[in-house]
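Today's session is about reading a structure prediction critically. Students often jump straight to the picture, but the first step is always the sequence itself: look for stretches that repeat, for charged clusters, for runs of hydrophobic residues. Only then move on to the predicted structure, which in these notes is written as discrete structure tokens rather than atom positions. Here is the chain we will use throughout the hour.
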Amino acid sequence: MMIYTLFKYTALSGALAAGLYACILGLLMTSSFQALAVYLHKIQLTWFKDLNVPESFGFLKNQVTPFTISSSDGGSLYAWHILPVDLYRQHESELAAEPSGFVSDVTSRVAFKLLRDDPNVRLVIHMHGAAGTVGSGYRVPNYRALSAAQPEKIHTITFDYRGFGYSAGTPSEAGLILDAISVVDWAINTVGIPPSRILIFGQSIGTAVGLATLEYYAEQSPSVAFAGTVLVAPFADVATLVATYSVAGTIPILSPLARFPGIFGYLSTFIHDTWSSNDRIARYVQANEKHGEKYRMTLIHAQDDWDIPWHHTETLFWRAVNATSARGVTYDELQQTKQESKTDLGAAGSVMEWRTSNGTIREEILKTGLHDVIMGNPVISLAVMRIFAAADPTWR
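Below is the predicted structure for this chain, in token form.
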């Protein structure tokens, strides 16, 4: 009798779990629920702190200027301008004397003028990952790492996409790309920073936004080339990501169905925002090679990343390398070249570079760093400095 009862409750639990899973799959087929699941934009992760008080996130008084940038479709994007700490030190009295908090006219601020008027400054445009805001989680240490290699000259602009934080709207692939292009246009046209002094930085879903932005500018006439780009924990596309993704590395979403290609392929047709970075990175490289534009790209991934497996970076690196020539490079050929040419850094991981007459594509696979912790590590500082130095060897 006990065995029968145990079997009955086990079967009932299994049926309930299967029913719940089916309900989740049904919800995931709708565009609204997909947006919630992909972007996680309703999760703030700022722990009741006010983004208009950046000092509560550990910044110096007025080191960060909160303001808005207009998106080209009429939306308003909440943004932070973050000063490098040594530049702040040099102008501390002026900066501290200004009123704190949100600024309606950013062009009137000392920080803006320091960015606009110095021909030697460099600018990182930061595109963050899913969930949270500009002030969430490991993003604050990330901003410090971005300017650490040259704390007098490297400014950072970070912003919340539509639907995130204080930015109104609903996120979508087309919308986020439009937002990123609007921010870059603002930096080029309003601030007056030439693209050659701008680095595009993206993490997680921000890598997909960054690649779409890079492709857009590379395909303009004339094409627009930036100092370079750093992509941390990128993914090939959403379909490949959901086939491998588990919440906190333990709770699978669609990965159980990846064993059934027919079912998984059918469900993949319901994906609204595909974020095909594997195609975009190839088109971006091809455009630069075609136009003879210089480009520098670094892809960084930790092997202990629970959220996005590091083999996504291997795939993207191959797609980029394959696009450098008409003949192309097969995945197996690249793997063989890696075995012969990559630099083994022991506990720090490995590095592989692919160079052409126009560009450098660098893959850094770290042993540790997780999905977010890595953003505040020295590997980020060095990647940024390496690109700016390569873009202008005279810059110090």
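Discussion point for the tutorial: The two ends are 80 Å apart (CA to CA).
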